[in-house]
Specification:
- About 85% of the residues lie in helices and about 0% in strands.
- It has about 100 residues and is mainly α.
- The chain is elongated and about 85 Å long.
- Helix 1 runs antiparallel to helix 2.
- It is built from three helices and no strands.
Amino acid sequence: MEKMGPVDFIKFGIGSMLLAKEQAEKFIDEAVKKGEMSKEEARKQLEEWKKEAQKSQKEFEKTIQKEVQKALKELGIATKDDINALKKEIKELKELIEKK
């Protein structure tokens, strides 16, 4: 089995979220049609699921970010933080040289 890369995780996550949203809406629509739930209850349930989905999305985004950072490190690619640290060090070294 191939190792999943960051892009694969993103595609998987987006697809899962879209599928879950469609399934939730179908479930709610059916419950309202059958009289098992009022429209107000359905609205509240959808809002609750939406909040849960947003929380899950944030967690997913953090996971993706960590995976991307890990991949960059494995490939030896400098991150923005790495570049900023080097800029700071160069600036400090220039200041030391100018003082002499």
